Amino acid sequence: MNKFRTHNCEELNEKDINKIVHLSGWLHRKRDHGNLLFADIRDHYGITQCVIENENKYFSILEKIRPESVLKIIGKVIKRSSGTENLELKTGKIEVSIQSIEILSEAKDLPMPVFGEQDYPEDIRLKYRFLDLRREEMHKNIILRSKVISFIRNEMVKLGFLEYQTPILTSSSPEGARDFLVPSRLNPGKFYALPQAPQQFKQLIMVSGFDKYFQIAPCFRDEDARADRSPGEFYQLDLEMSFVEQEDVFNVVEKLMVNLFKKFSSKKIINEKFPRISFEEAMMKYGTDKPDLRNPLEIFDLTKLFTREDVKFDIFKKLVKSGSIVRAIITKDTKNKPRSFFDNIDKWAKEQGASGLAYFTLESEKEIRAKGPVGKFFSEDSLKELMEISNAKIGDSVFLACGKKKEIQKTLALARDKIAKDLNIINENQFSFCWIVDYPMYEYDDNSKKIIFSHNPFSMPQGNIAELNFDEPLKIKAYQYDIVCNGIELSSGAIRNHIPKLMYKLFSIAGYSEDTVNDKFSGMINALSYGAPPHGGIAPGIDRIVMLLAGKENIREITLFPMNQNAQDLMMQAPSEVDDDQLKELSIKKDIKN
Predict the structure, then answer these.
(1) Is 451 within 8 Å of 466 (Cβ atoms)?
(2) Residues 505-532: tens digit of each pLDDT
(3) C-alpha 479: how far from its chain's center?
(4) Quick one: which of 292, 276, 212, 249 has its CA closest to 493?
């Protein structure tokens, strides 16, 4: 018999009454009733209530011991008295009458309590993460994460994939985010990079003749923190397949996601066959390539309307003549909303850095008219055209924004979410997936004033390769795709370019010489030169998947030991200084002026 316990703290029930049992766990909380002292003992599995009378010689020990001390309890299982059962606990119909107590580990005064789910400052939670993780909700989140990863592994094997491990120490890449660099002791002055993703390696696995690869892959990027992105490191389900087209990847991922989200959530999946939305359509209708499709609001282009003579909204008309566009969000049946609702949206838009949102509501008495601050500038005929373009009806409201295309897309994407939340029209009990497809191969970068890759530079362009017009690169689309759920991007993927000659050409458009490609991507370009299969893949983010399933808005709530916003591990005091001997061994000399 195990000397610490005969049962765990979730295991006992009415069938165990009169048994002598051994329990070990943390002292969750105490309740002193004078002659009786109740103590909840907690372990990984659950909680058991224990009780001791003041005549027992161990009473004073339990009375004085601090919460979160680790105890071993020996006692007799008894039935709780009528009216004291706790049906929220699996052990709620019994309790253990304590015969003896052994202190296995005594706790100091706590910097934060474990009992209860109060909010505490992030720095306290991260510094004492081992205490934070004892809290019920956090503990459940991490268990969920483990179960999700195990389920994914099993499903991938069922789908015919094999798991392979790719290197952690690799070479720096000129694409993507900043690398984390690791100095080489054996090669002074040279550095490894931690992989931002196993991108090149997983393609090389396909070139090596393996058919279906997956890995729960750690990835490292020196990026700033966000609510849905950890600074430093994250995990993804990395997968790649040979001899496939885009739809083959979609079929595998859709099957996995549907099974996964059904297994771990009771929320409804709106479409089990995920809609395909082109990048161009997504940017037009939602202002973003990460649309939350639970939100029914759409964006419409009304630029043409402001070329009419009977529209007198001169501020917008002048901007349109100088190259600006006008787009609008239509809200359904909002005629009875108070003026404050509309004004608050306009005020919010200005706080986001926009010039505000003009608005009016469509009404009809003898004729169609617009009620609102700018309504007087629109004739009945112009309103009829607006209604035809946007499917707006009498009683609907129109929010208008005017400016440069990228600015308007950003403003209305945020406004779409803001308005939907204010109207309470997003169903929180749903998951809505979609594929964003047909990304442009290139985009024009306003900062560098040159053409750059818009997505993954290793992607295959769409169309007949022999007929591609490389003189108009901004018109070339790629087999690149993102999977999005509830407005969160879970992953990017692509069908890969496996033709070296084509790769040189595509990179040359983005300003890379053949020598640069050979230098920066030598392993990849060399391997493709010896016969490579058509292949493609994707890499859904584990952290974001678990975040959605747990219903959390911050990725730190589902990560065991996360860093703070400044990429610091407050518990382990990382990053930290290293001594001069270590630096000397690595041929590194500090030259930092404080």
Answers:
(1) no
(2) 999 999 999 999 998 888 889 999 999 9
(3) 23
(4) 249
